Amino acid sequence: MTTRHTVAPKGQGGRGAYRTIGEAIRAASPGDLVAIAPGTWTENLVLDRAVVLTAEHGRGSVVIAAPPGELPAVTVEGPDCALHNLTVWGADAGLPAVSVSPGAGLVLEECSVEGGRVQAKGPEDEEDGTTALVLRRCRVEGARLAGLHLAGSVRARLEDTAVTGVDGTGVVLSGTASLDAVRLRLERTTGSGVRLRGRSRLRLTDAVLAGSGRAGLLLEDSTEALAGETRIETPGAAGVHLTGSARAELTDCRIRGAAASGLVVQETALLSASGCSVADAGANGLLVTGSGEARLADCRIDRSAFSAVHLAGTAVGRLADCRVRGGSEHGVHATGEARVELTDCGITDVAMTGVSVLERAVATLTGCRVAGAAAGIGIGSAAGSTVADSTVTGTKEIGVQIAKGGAASLTGIRISGAGAAGLVVDEGAEATVDGGWVEDCAGSGAVVWTGARPEVTGLRIDRPGKNGVFLAEGAGGTFTALDVTRAGFPALHVAKGADPVFRHCRVRDCAEALGTDDGARPVLEDCTADGTPLAFGAPAAPAGQTAPGAAPAARSAGSAEDTGEPEEENLEDLLGELHELVGLDRVKQDVGSLVKLMQTVRRREEAGLPAPPLSRHLVFAGNPGTGKTTVARLYGRLLKALGLLRRGHLIEVDRTALVGEYVGHTGPKTTAAFNRALGGVLFIDEAYSLAPALAGNDFGTEAVATLVKLMEDHRDDVVVIAAGYPGDMHRFIGSNPGLASRFGRTLLFEDYEPVELVSIVEYQAGQHRYELTPTARAELLALFGSMPKGEGFGNGRSARQVFQEMTERQAQRVAELTAPTADQLISLEAHDLPHPAAR
Question: Which string of b and e fits 238-252 if b means at least 16 CB within 10 Å?
Fold first, then answer.
C-alpha cells in the first residue's frame, strides 16, 4: 500500500511533515510518494529505492538545487524511481544534475533540469542488466559538454522533451545505449545535436534538431539510427554525418541550411533515405567517400553550394526517383573509383554539369532527366558508364560529352536544345550510341574529335545549328542508320585524315549533304541525300546553285577571295594611297615612321648586320568607322612591298571565328584562322571580347593563349593587329603576359571631325558620279556638327550611310521631274539631306 510523505518547511505541512526531502526518502518504503511543498530545497538527494518525488502544488513550484560541490542534485540508485513536476538545478554545468546509476531506473515527468546534464550509466555488458530512463514533457537546459548522456547498457525514451542551450553536444549515446525519442526538440548546441558512439542505437520520430554548432546527427563506430519525420535545421556542419561502419535509415526527414554537406557518409558507413529532402547545404547535398554507400529513394536535393551529390574513393551511390534542383556546381559528381546508379532521377538548373564522371568512376543512368544545366552529362572515366532512355534538355553548353579518355554506352538518349553541340566524343574517347535523338542544338548535332572512333547506330539528328555530324582531323567511327534533317551547315563534315564509315544514312532538307576537307576519306554505303544516292567525290553543284529548298553555304569567316600570290606593288604608290585617306593625320605619321624604321631594318639585313629587336604587331585603338580595317589592309601591302611579308593579304576575324563552343574546339579554330593569315596580316576586330571583364571559364582566354604561342612560332611570317575601343584594349593587352611584349605599339584612330566627314561624303559622291551643291555641302557640315557622338555614331560608316540616304532621296526627287537634265541627275542638293531627327 502506497504511503504519502510530506516535505515542508518548519511551521508548514502539519504534524509528521519532514523538514528535508532526504529525510522523507530515507523514511519511505518502495512504492511510496514524497510530496514536496513549494520552495527551493538545497540538497544532494539519493534515491536508493522505488520512490516518487512530486511537487505538491504543480510544476515550477519546487526547485531541488545541488549545494556547491561535485555531487548531482539527484542520484538514482534504485529501480522504478520517478520525479514529477520538479525543477532540478545542478551545481556545475559541466557535471550531472541528475545521475542514474547502473541497473537503476528513473522516470522524469513534467520536469526541468538546468545547469547540468541528465546522465545515465548502464553495465558494460548487457548480460549484467540495463539502466532505464524515461523523460516525458521535460526540459534540459544550460548544461556543458552534454545535455543528455547515455553510456553503457541504457534503455531510454524521450517524449515531448526539449534539450536546449547546451555548450557541447545535445544528446550523447555510447556503448550499447539505446534511445527512442518521440517529438524531441533539440536547439542551440555548440557541438553536435545528437552523437552516437560504440554500438549505440537511436530512433527519432517527429523530432527537430535545430541550430547545432556542429553536425545535426553524428554516427560513429558501429552505431545505428532510424529517423522518421525529423527536421534538422541550420547545423554548423553536416546535417547527418556517418563514419566508421555506422548505419542510418531516414524516412520523410528534412535537412535545411547545413553549413557543410547535408548528408555525409564516410569509411564503410551505410545511409538509406526515403522521402527526404536536403536544401541549401553549404557544401554538397550528399557526400559519400571511402567505401561508404548511400541509397536514396524519392528524395530531393535543392540549392547546394557545391555539387549536389559527390562520390569519391570507392563509394557507392544508388538514387531512385530523386530530384536535384539548383546548385553552384555539378548535379552528380563521381570521382576516384566510385559507382553511382541513377534511376528515374531528375537534375535541373545546376551551374555546371548535370552528371560528371571522372577518373575511374562508373555511372549507370536509366530513365533520367537533365535540364537547364551548363552541360548535361560529362563522362571522362574509361571504366565504362552507361546512359539509357534518358533526356538532356536546355543546356547552356554541350548536351552529352564523352571526354578525353572516357568510355560510355548511350542507348535511347534524347538531347534537345543544347546551347552548343549536342553530343561530343573527345580525342581518344570510346563511345557506343544505339538509337536516340539530338534536336535543336545551337552547334553541331554530334562532334567527333581526333582519334575518336564511336559506333553510332540509329541516331536521329534534327535541326542542328551547324553540322549534323562534325568529324575533326584523324577522327573516324561507324555511323549506321543515321538520320540528319534540317542542318544549317553540311549534314556530314569530314576533316583532313578522317575516315568514318556511313552506312544506310539519310540526309534530308540540309544546306548541304557532305562537306569534306582535303585529305578526308569518308566511306558512304547506301546513303541518300533527299532521296538521291550520296557518294564521296560526286561532282559539286555549279557555282551559285544549291539543291532545291536548300540554303546557300555560308562563306567561312575571314576567308580570302583569292588564294593566289598578290601582284607586286610600289612602296611609293602605297604611301601615296595612305596619305590620300581622309583625316587620320596622326595614324599616317605613325605608319610612315614604321615604314622608315622597317626600311632601315631591311637594309641592315641586306648588309649582313643583325636586325634590331622589332615587333611588327600593332594595336589599333579607335571607335567604329575610323578606318582601322582600311589602314590594316594597307599596312600588310606596305610590308609586302618592303619584303617583310610574303603575301601581305588581310584575314579579318572576330571572336566568333576564334572561339569554340565546347571544350577542345577553341585551339583548333584559332589555329585554323591564324594559318590562313600566314604571310600576311591577321586583323582581330573587337579583340577585347576575347578577354571579357568577368572571364570565369570563358574560352576566349584559351584563344588568347593559342594566339600568343602562334605569334611566337611564326613571328617572321605574320603580323597580328588587334583592334577595338580604346578603353577596352588596355584590358585585352593585360589579359595575358605574352601580349604586352608582342604588342609594343598602339595607333590611336581619332574620331573624324565634321569637315572630314564631309570630305568622305564628297569622295563617295565622286566615286559614283555625284556632286554636292555649295548649299548642300554647308548644311551637311552643320548636320555632322550636330550629330551626337554617342555609342551609335559610326564615324566614316555614318558618313557613308548619309551619302546613301542622300542618293535615295535624290532619286525620289528626280523621279518626279518630267525631263531631268544631266546636272539634275548628278546634283545632290540640300533637300536630299536626311533630317537630323531621322538620324
Answer: bbbbbbbbbbbbbbe
